[in-house]
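Page 37, continued from 36.
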Protein backbone atom coordinates (compact mmCIF):
# COMPACT_ATOMS: atom_id res chain seq x y z
CA UNK A 1 0.00 0.00 0.00
CA UNK A 2 1.34 3.44 -0.97
CA UNK A 3 0.79 6.41 1.35
CA UNK A 4 1.67 10.08 0.82
CA UNK A 5 2.92 12.29 3.66
CA UNK A 6 4.21 15.59 2.32
CA UNK A 7 5.75 16.84 5.57
CA UNK A 8 7.41 13.57 6.59
CA UNK A 9 10.61 13.97 4.52
CA UNK A 10 13.66 16.18 4.72
CA UNK A 11 16.09 17.30 2.03
CA UNK A 12 16.55 14.81 -0.86
CA UNK A 13 14.55 11.96 0.66
CA UNK A 14 11.34 11.26 -1.26
CA UNK A 15 10.29 7.75 -0.23
CA UNK A 16 10.70 5.02 2.32
CA UNK A 17 9.35 1.62 3.19
CA UNK A 18 7.91 0.81 6.58
CA UNK A 19 6.43 -2.66 6.36
CA UNK A 20 3.87 -3.04 4.81
CA UNK A 21 3.73 0.53 3.46
CA UNK A 22 5.61 2.59 0.92
CA UNK A 23 5.52 6.21 2.02
CA UNK A 24 6.13 8.95 -0.56
CA UNK A 25 6.70 12.70 -0.37
CA UNK A 26 4.01 13.53 -2.96
CA UNK A 27 1.39 11.97 -5.26
CA UNK A 28 3.44 12.50 -8.42
CA UNK A 29 6.03 10.01 -7.15
CA UNK A 30 3.49 7.19 -7.44
CA UNK A 31 4.30 7.10 -11.15
CA UNK A 32 8.08 6.85 -10.58
CA UNK A 33 8.50 3.17 -11.45
CA UNK A 34 12.16 3.02 -10.35
CA UNK A 35 11.41 4.58 -6.97
CA UNK A 36 8.50 2.23 -6.33
CA UNK A 37 10.65 -0.75 -7.33
CA UNK A 38 13.44 0.49 -5.04
CA UNK A 39 11.00 0.60 -2.12
CA UNK A 40 9.59 -2.82 -3.01
CA UNK A 41 13.11 -4.23 -2.80
CA UNK A 42 13.27 -2.82 0.74
CA UNK A 43 9.95 -4.45 1.59
CA UNK A 44 11.38 -7.78 0.44
CA UNK A 45 14.50 -7.21 2.57
CA UNK A 46 12.31 -6.37 5.55
CA UNK A 47 10.33 -9.58 5.16
CA UNK A 48 13.50 -11.67 4.96
CA UNK A 49 14.70 -10.27 8.28
CA UNK A 50 11.25 -10.47 9.89
CA UNK A 51 10.74 -6.67 9.86
CA UNK A 52 11.96 -5.52 13.32
CA UNK A 53 15.44 -7.11 12.98
CA UNK A 54 15.71 -5.38 9.59
CA UNK A 55 15.41 -1.98 11.26
CA UNK A 56 17.93 -2.94 13.95
CA UNK A 57 20.46 -4.13 11.36
CA UNK A 58 19.76 -1.11 9.12
CA UNK A 59 20.30 1.37 11.96
CA UNK A 60 23.39 -0.43 13.27
CA UNK A 61 24.97 -0.56 9.82
CA UNK A 62 24.12 3.12 9.27
CA UNK A 63 25.78 4.15 12.54
CA UNK A 64 28.93 2.14 11.75
CA UNK A 65 29.20 3.41 8.19
CA UNK A 66 28.40 7.01 9.17
CA UNK A 67 31.29 6.89 11.65
CA UNK A 68 33.53 5.23 9.06
CA UNK A 69 32.78 7.87 6.40
CA UNK A 70 32.34 10.70 8.95
CA UNK A 71 29.16 11.56 7.07
CA UNK A 72 25.61 10.36 7.75
CA UNK A 73 24.45 10.67 4.14
CA UNK A 74 27.49 8.84 2.79
CA UNK A 75 26.88 6.18 5.44
CA UNK A 76 23.29 5.86 4.16
CA UNK A 77 24.45 5.58 0.54
CA UNK A 78 26.78 2.73 1.45
CA UNK A 79 24.33 0.60 3.40
CA UNK A 80 24.10 -2.92 1.98
CA UNK A 81 20.30 -2.59 1.75
CA UNK A 82 20.55 0.68 -0.16
CA UNK A 83 23.31 -0.52 -2.47
CA UNK A 84 21.21 -3.49 -3.51
CA UNK A 85 18.08 -1.38 -4.00
CA UNK A 86 19.82 1.42 -5.94
CA UNK A 87 21.73 -1.01 -8.14
CA UNK A 88 18.57 -2.91 -9.15
CA UNK A 89 15.81 -0.28 -8.97
CA UNK A 90 15.55 -0.08 -12.77
CA UNK A 91 15.22 -3.86 -13.17
CA UNK A 92 11.51 -4.45 -12.65
CA UNK A 93 12.02 -8.24 -12.63
CA UNK A 94 14.69 -8.12 -9.93
CA UNK A 95 12.36 -8.87 -7.01
CA UNK A 96 11.29 -12.10 -8.70
CA UNK A 97 14.85 -13.03 -9.70
CA UNK A 98 16.80 -12.18 -6.55
CA UNK A 99 18.05 -14.79 -4.13
CA UNK A 100 17.04 -14.53 -0.48
CA UNK A 101 19.34 -12.33 1.62
CA UNK A 102 21.01 -10.89 -1.49
CA UNK A 103 21.79 -7.68 0.40
CA UNK A 104 24.57 -9.54 2.28
CA UNK A 105 26.90 -9.49 -0.71
CA UNK A 106 26.71 -5.67 -0.69
CA UNK A 107 28.09 -5.37 2.86
CA UNK A 108 31.72 -5.37 1.72
CA UNK A 109 31.57 -3.83 -1.75
Amino acid sequence: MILVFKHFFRKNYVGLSLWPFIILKNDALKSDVSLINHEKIHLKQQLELLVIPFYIVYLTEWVIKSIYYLDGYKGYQNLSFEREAYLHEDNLDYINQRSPFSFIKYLWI
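The chain has a mean pLDDT of 96. Flag for discussion at group meeting. DSSP finds five helices and three strands in the chain.
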